[in-house]
Amino acid sequence: MFESAELGHKIDKATYDLEVPKLREALLEAQIDLAKLAKFPVIILVGGLDGAGRGETVNLLNEWMDPRFIQTHGMGEPSDEELDRPMMWRFWRELPPKGKIGVFLGSWYTWPILNRVTGQTKAADLDQSMERAKRLEKMLTDEGALILKFWMHLSKDRQEKRLKLLEKNPKTRWRVTDRDWKHFKLYDKFRIVHEGVIRHTSTAEAPWTIVEGYDPRYRSLTIGKVILDAIRRRLNDVDNKMVDDIAPPPLPSIDQLNVLKTLDLKQKITKKTFTAELEKYQGKLALLTREAKFKDITVIALFEGNDAAGKGGAIRRITSALDARYYTIIPVAAPTEEERAQPYLWRFWRHIPRRGRVMIFDRSWYGRVLVERVEGFCSKTDWMRAYSEINDFEAQLVRHNIVVVKFWLTISKDEQLERFNAREKIGFKRFKITEDDWRNRDKWDDYEHAVCEMVDRTSTEIAPWTLVEANDKNFARIKILKTLCKQIEAAMKNQ
Amino acid sequence: MFESAELGHKIDKATYDLEVPKLREALLEAQIDLAKLAKFPVIILVGGLDGAGRGETVNLLNEWMDPRFIQTHGMGEPSDEELDRPMMWRFWRELPPKGKIGVFLGSWYTWPILNRVTGQTKAADLDQSMERAKRLEKMLTDEGALILKFWMHLSKDRQEKRLKLLEKNPKTRWRVTDRDWKHFKLYDKFRIVHEGVIRHTSTAEAPWTIVEGYDPRYRSLTIGKVILDAIRRRLNDVDNKMVDDIAPPPLPSIDQLNVLKTLDLKQKITKKTFTAELEKYQGKLALLTREAKFKDITVIALFEGNDAAGKGGAIRRITSALDARYYTIIPVAAPTEEERAQPYLWRFWRHIPRRGRVMIFDRSWYGRVLVERVEGFCSKTDWMRAYSEINDFEAQLVRHNIVVVKFWLTISKDEQLERFNAREKIGFKRFKITEDDWRNRDKWDDYEHAVCEMVDRTSTEIAPWTLVEANDKNFARIKILKTLCKQIEAAMKNQ
């Protein structure tokens, strides 16, 4: 695998001096076109051995290119706020928007590799991390991102030579740390792990480019040209996005039965039961969220449902039991300009809270497979792949001790009509009914179909959907509070 | 001062039940109008005594209003990332955008008061904090924000009663902590400090509203009505923004002399000197930024200058001495949608780095008093007040061990013309010349005037401007590197 990168590639100064001005000009032009088009971001990962010139190359790239459209991120030790959130959050917060280039020195590969070589994790852990990396990259490229992964390699001899060379020069001495020499002693171990990682994660969407790092001129010119070529090819090809519907078709609805139709919407509770149960479960929720153990978990509750199904009312029954300092409601509306310049899930990642918080999403990332699907706001491929992206996303949350509680509130078509009419009569509820609501109502069956498929594809053991019969508001509210308490309790027991 | 809030205000249930539906409806309508207009944000601060119902009131507000347009922030202990930046950063990151309401439970008043009462700071420190708070609020209201500050007060008797009442009820017992009782013992001290703070910071732009917190119905209705009334008045008055040019007029230019004209643009260095000095100062910068002490400071260097004055080249001479992981270049371009919905300085606050970083702004917050002033992109009042806002902003940075280094690069009008022409000939520099550049050139004198006034008003002892004679690029680069090293060195000595 590293054969070509241990040959001692070199470029003489004359050739280099001849090539660089042309390359710089072409890179700048490509950057300008990229920024003007603003249709996809470029994500460059730079990994590899110590002393193989990762930092220098990145500095040079910054020097060659227009700094307005390129940004470098050193992914060193994570901060406390970063440790307090799922591992990938720190990358999401630094993703370049469409039209720009983001260079990552250190990436989602760095820590898994290091932890494996130093024996802190097992081979299976590394495999899992690599699977996650692949899924992330798949999602990013599906969203249009161009991902370029560079691996700076050196043979063992040459790594030693490079480190010694850097140490001898007073101007570069600081670059060589004790850690570098410690890692050098582990060269063979690193090499094996590196090889496995590269083999495992060189995908069609985001292959690795291995570059010999010994000769600065060679490595800089090589990387510059690969970047230029990739951006250019992508710019020419930008409208040629492959659309292949590889997802399996939904089950045909032969007997007209579906998960929503099996719900008994007639379920009711009396006013008296409601008052008693409300007090009970709000009190329970209040106490649970004030336990010391709660500081170690996070709750993300999301609400989806038919229009007028009573999401707002249910949310208020939850929040009135909580301390206003520790909960946030995120009403999900149309994405902003900065959000539109990012992958779909970015606008949810940015809201992921620290530990000890309750975050409530009033509508959520499921909009992709509900309203966006039904109204045709995104392509079929986009919502098709959303199922597995969402499952991935939620798995990352759960792995980080986040309790993900998902509610779908169902009402019957008749009940909805009654509520729409009632709302139009009550002054301060009038604003809740818009023309969109009436239009959505016309597509009742399409939405029902989308909901059933969503439940089938995303109700997982770690983050199950709770379907709530909401024709009786009070019944729904109690079911929701009860479910929430139960899931929080279970999570705290597992701590 | 607290007399009216110790009378034992109460409202009976019948009146309350009659008033609330009307108030809710009106609040919702005001919220919708606020969101539709999207011209100003509403910032609500809720402070006051423990047990005076701060949290409950905020919960109720959230219940009454539309959660899509209101967001509550509990300002408890700051996070590590927050501690790593100037104190106000945590508020800037949570400011509501135009059209929305942000409620802060705990504010820029909380910690200064607490630190004073517990004797950790002196009276003078508190005074300084209050001055800062006033300036922040002035800036926010100048930017259009509506600020409502509520102070929940209780007499000593009633605070004790309230705490006991809350403790007796199993459902609210968790609300009363040891800290609350500890604070209760300090009631008299708190009262004196509170009174001083309120007196000091009740300004015309952002006055305090003191509310007796004993009776939940009274305090909720009062606060709800004050909010409603303030939003309504502001909505009616939104286009009536007072424009009064209170800033002193610039000095008349009688002898045609100004700070820029005193610069000797003929200064030059030889290629040989340049090479030697470049090596010397880049090496010095490289070593300085790798010292252990550097981890305790942050460097913010900003570059302004005539078009084609060589900002980019100078920046590259700096960055090539730095580790790409620890520096960031922020090219300042037109603000995004999310940035336009915030006060002017928000888009710079959001980039403030953690310690141990070098942040380079290619153009900066001075755009307000340069291009925006000259091109008429903002009103005269807006750029007039920008001088003191900027001085304030930089003072906050410096107070937090941030080294603020400001460069103005000057070239002569002739030199600029030569460079423009040269750039149009070199392929990969062609993109650097736009029609804007030629247009700006026509306004040379206006820009010169704006620059001189900027220097006069914002070159402070803590953050001085360095005027750089840039007709000779190499001379400029060395002067910049030298200045930067000197300022970093000085800051590290003061550590």
Can you characterise this structure?
The structure is a homodimer. Chain A contains 20 helices and ten strands. The first copy, chain A, is of the alpha/beta class. Chain A has a five-stranded parallel sheet with strand order 2-3-1-4-5, with helices on both faces. Chain A has a five-stranded parallel sheet with strand order 7-8-6-9-10, with helices on both faces. At the A-B interface, helix 1, helix 2, strand 2, helix 11 and helix 12 of A face helix 1, helix 2, strand 2, helix 11 and helix 12 of B. Chains A, B: This is Polyphosphate:AMP phosphotransferase. Chains A, B: It comes from Candidatus Methylobacter titanis.
Structure summary:
Chains A, B: Pfam families: PPK2. With 495 residues, chain A is of the alpha/beta class.
Which helices and strands, and how do they pair?
2 copies of one chain form a homodimer.
Chain A: H1 13-37, E1 42-48, H2 54-64, E2 70-74, H3 80-83, H4 89-92, E3 101-105, H5 110-117, H6 123-142, E4 146-153, H7 156-168, H8 178-185, H9 187-201, E5 208-212, H10 216-236, H11 271-288, E6 298-305, H12 311-319, E7 327-331, H13 337-340, H14 346-349, E8 358-362, H15 371-374, H16 380-399, E9 402-410, H17 413-425, H18 435-442, H19 444-458, E10 465-469, H20 473-493
